[in-house]
Design goal:
Length: 281
Amino acid sequence: MTPWISPEALQARLASPGLRVVDVRFSLADREAGRRAYLAGHLPGAVFLDLETDLSGPLAAHGGRHPLPDPERAAAVFGAAGIDADTQVVAYDDAGGMVAGRVWWMLRWLGHERVQVLDGGVDGWLAAGGALVAEVPDIPPAAFVPRVRDGMAVDRDWLLAHAADPGVVVVDARAPERYRGEVEPIDPRGGHIPGAINLPYAGNLDAGRFRSPEALKARFGALADAGTVVVYCGSGVSAAHDLMALEACGIHGARLYPGSWSDWVSYDDAAIVLGDEPAGG
């Protein structure tokens, strides 16, 4: 199953039994904006999940700004949204799939493969002639049984233990200016993890839609020979966008650092690189 679905293909399947559409619009600048947008108009039958209250765990001294929730808690959230082992899930947002990728990754982490992101999000849906509705559906809960795939994620200790491993490639999915530490609008320190290369998630898009698998393969092809690819971002959300792109172009098994930069810099002894990586670094 491809990581994303076109608006036209979703329109053709919208009335299918066993489909659950999930709205995950979210803004760091206004944390209630996504819910307000959902109530004003959403895809027919869509349920709303909030990035911070539904798709993240409680904050702590370490773990990042959007730590993964406990698997049982995540399973309860997805079950309450009417998702079980047989449900086909399509998640969407208004940010090029940046937030929806969190749902794609989390469900797969919990053992549920039948999940896709709506290519183009709300704008793509409307451009394809899709309608929005204000009616909030009454969704009966389902039993979601998690089957956690631990190998999909790594933590800071894993990265430190493999820092000298030439077979491990670490990818930073943030914007170049944040990677270089020129600006840091959210976290207390800027820069990047030593050795990380910069492949911003925005480069996976063209006019708000995912680029073709061929174009993505040209972008990520050099990673095909890596032993292990680990992707991080600011808080483990937009990194899933790169992970979707890697899957789409045939590079499977890349891992997420869920805590990402916000976890890395929560440690006083964190090694940080400013600027670009040295030649050969």
